[in-house]
# Entry
Amino acid sequence: MKKIISLTSEQTLDLGRQIGQAIISPFAIALKGDLGSGKTTLVQGLAKGLGIGDDYYITSPTYTIINEYPAMKIRLCHLDLYRLGSADELEYIGFDDLAGPDAVIVVEWPGFLEEMQFKFDLEIKFEFDADYNRIISLFPSGQTGINLVSKLFL
Ligand SMILES: Nc1ncnc2c1ncn2[C@@H]1O[C@H](COP(=O)(O)OP(=O)(O)OP(=O)(O)O)[C@@H](O)[C@H]1O
Ligand SMILES: [Mg+2]
# Structure
């Protein structure tokens, strides 16, 4: 497990950018942590690292549930399941169609997917410290996740 303390949103963006630069698809990331802890901010950096152009502004998929962004060799699928009512609704939102060799799947509030034993390569946990800095912990799982984390300059 690797842990960093992020004092500013720029530092969180930079971590996301590094992850995006190092990722090889297919890859799946679970983002966990309280409201406003920095999950969407990290995805904005990730999109930059993946080469997604500035003409796409990465917004929170709180209401849309899924936002999809194309890049050169990958597709960033950014999900926020906060408003999902049950695991059954995953089928309704088309989750099963997202997978593919080019997919980078990033999920905020991944609880229902974890219940279904969906396999994430990396879990990123966001916590606040007493000064509202973000403590960001990376938990890779399996060889794909471990390889990714080993490429980061933390
Ligand atoms: N170190 C930091 N890392 C990330 N965000 C920070 C940091 N410091 C301040 N912020 C601010 O905190 C907010 C984080 O919001 P963000 O939308 O990324 O949270 P979230 O975890 O996606 O929340 P939600 O669960 O509601 O989707 C942003 O306004 C960001 O600018
Ligand atoms: Mg968010």
Remarks:
- Residues 39-40, 60, 80, 108 surround magnesium ion (ligand 2) (CB under 6 Å).
